[in-house]
Automatic annotation (TrEMBL):
Naturally occurring in which organism (per UniProt): Aliikangiella maris
The protein's role, per its UniProt record: Removes the formyl group from the N-terminal Met of newly synthesized proteins. Requires at least a dipeptide for an efficient rate of reaction. N-terminal L-methionine is a prerequisite for activity but the enzyme has broad specificity at other positions.
Family, per entry: Belongs to the polypeptide deformylase family.
Annotated active site: 143
Keywords: Hydrolase, Iron, Metal-binding, Protein biosynthesis
HAMAP family hit by this protein: Pep_deformylase
Co-factor requirement: Fe(2+)
Protein name according to UniProt: Peptide deformylase
Alphabetized Pfam families for the sequence: Pep_deformylase
């Protein structure tokens, strides 16, 4: 198991724009994906982007079946997404209390497009294209933001809805 340290908000690497992957199905890419998966699972994440472990490449992973950090989240298929592109399909938005492994112990209410299409490649260079909404759409947008040097607080409109999980009133607490 190759669990890597997760960079935290304030680290300049998290503010960089990531480079596209130009070669697929390489040992280096496979190792990066294994490191991302191991690190995400060890930290109970719903997703993880390469910059979060210090690699400024356009690689994200995500997927959730059951997760203590997001107990009410719908199932999202385990996905490796490389060189992603997102297309907004509706003006409708949704708000969600997002968290991030790079901002431990905190959550923020973020409004994002509710219906998107994402495209990219898997680790073998095969095309992935999905039209999604709900939690799936949130996770994809959150992870892809990392590839542009954006953390979720930078997407927030109301900083009074940002704080430590144990201090916020989320889900009736």
């Amino acid at each position: 198991m190759a669990v890597k340290p997760i960079l935290k908000m304030g680290n300049p690497v998290l503010q960089q724009v990531s480079e596209p992957i130009t070669e697929f199905n390489t040992p280096e890419l496979q190792q990066l994906i294994e490191d991302l998966l191991d690190t995400m699972q060890a930290n109970q994440g719903a997703g993880l982007a390469a910059p979060q472990i210090g690699v400024t490449k356009q690689v994200v992973i995500f997927g959730i079946e059951q997760n203590e950090r997001y107990p009410d989240a719908e199932v999202v298929p385990q996905t490796v997404l490389i060189n992603p592109q997102i297309e907004v399909l509706s003006q409708q938005t949704q708000s969600y209390w997002e968290g991030c492994l790079s901002i431990p112990g905190m959550r923020g209410l973020v409004e994002r497009p509710a219906h998107i299409r994402y495209r990219g490649f898997d680790q073998y260079g095969e095309t992935i294209e999905r039209e999604v909404n709900g939690f799936h759409a949130i996770v994809v947008q959150h992870e892809c933001d990392h590839l542009r040097g954006i953390l979720y607080p930078m997407q927030m409109h109301d900083m009074s809805k940002f704080g430590f999980i144990d201090e916020l009133e989320i889900n009736g607490r």
